[in-house]
Design goal:
The complex is a heterodimer of chains A (110) and B (174). Chain A is mostly helical and 110 residues long. Chain A contains four helices and three strands. The chains are: A mainly alpha (110), B alpha+beta (174). At the A-B interface, α1, α2, α3 and α4 of A face α2 and α3 of B.
């Protein structure tokens, strides 16, 4: 894998939060809800992450509300989805391997 | 109210602005070390200071992004921006993970390195002028520029130390 893996928690959750079009405030809220308030992204952290992911083409600008001239929405791209899926694969591998710990315990019991 | 202070460490400056807010003084303007304050409800605002990537750049994009998150950009000084958020709208921390904090402190180091080079050039020019002319005024400037350079060196060192600390606690999703 390239150096994008492992993803930081912030990048991982932002990718997840923009699977459907989402704006800055919505991203922070969704991530906070998903993690039970454990991960609350700071405005600067989110701004930096969004800009770097826009540059890398992981997410794209979905809309720019003309009337309020604010509230840009972002959406996951194909590249971003690929990055996310690779990360999930890697995490699944970790969890699968972690089960060996329990298997060992089971063996000792017998 | 007007106050004069020289800050090189933005973390200390943030703490001071918060203290002033707790005393009922909301920071409003900055110019050459002069801070203008307006009266406010004690503790009404929390402050953060950020360093932009460019001098001009896409500042409006940054400002509207922050506004959407309930954060007000109140002042800009070169690449430095002063931000505030109402305390009732929740805690205010611009950078919340080790990676983005390291990015910020690296940016600050690079910013001050350029300033340091300029200060060093000024210092040697002043020093040469002092030695050649023996003028008292040049001597004062030499000491002044030297003192500023040392203060900047101290900040660069502090930022490096903070980066080291952050690297130690950096948690990644392994």
């Amino acid at each position: 894998m390239d150096n994008s893996s492992p993803l930081t928690e912030a990048l991982f959750y932002i990718l997840l939060a923009v699977r459907t079009p989402n704006h800055g405030y919505g991203i922070i809220q969704d991530i906070s809800e998903m993690t039970g308030g454990r991960v609350v992204l700071g405005p600067g952290t989110l701004y930096g992450a969004i800009n770097s992911m826009l540059t890398k083409g992981w997410i794209s600008l979905y809309s720019e509300d003309k009337e309020s001239r604010k509230k840009k929405e972002y959406l996951l791209t194909k590249i971003g989805r690929g990055i996310f899926e690779n990360e999930v694969k890697r995490l699944n591998e970790l969890v699968e391997n972690a089960k060996k710990m329990d298997e060992e315990k089971e063996m000792k019991k017998c | 109210m007007l106050k004069f202070k020289l800050y090189y460490d933005k973390d200390a400056e943030e703490v001071w602005l918060r203290e002033m807010s707790l005393k009922g003084w909301a920071f409003k303007k900055f110019f050459l070390g002069f801070y203008t304050f307006e009266s406010c409800e004690p503790g009404e605002y929390n402050y953060q200071i950020d360093l932009l990537d460019n001098w001009s750049g896409n500042k409006s994009d940054y400002v509207s992004f922050m506004e959407d998150l309930g954060v007000e950009v109140i002042e800009q000084w070169w690449r430095w921006v002063y931000l505030r958020k109402k305390a009732i709208d929740g805690p205010f921390e611009m950078y919340t993970d080790a990676e983005s904090k390291i990015d910020l402190y690296s940016k600050i180091i690079n910013f001050f390195k350029i300033v340091l080079v300029i200060e060093a050039i000024c210092f040697f020019m002043e020093l040469t002028a002092t030695i050649l002319t023996g003028n008292f005024m040049y001597g004062i400037f030499t000491v002044l520029v030297g003192a500023i350079s040392l203060a900047i060196l101290n900040v660069v060192w502090k930022c490096k130390w903070k980066i080291e600390q952050l690297k130690n606690e950096e948690i990644r999703m392994y």
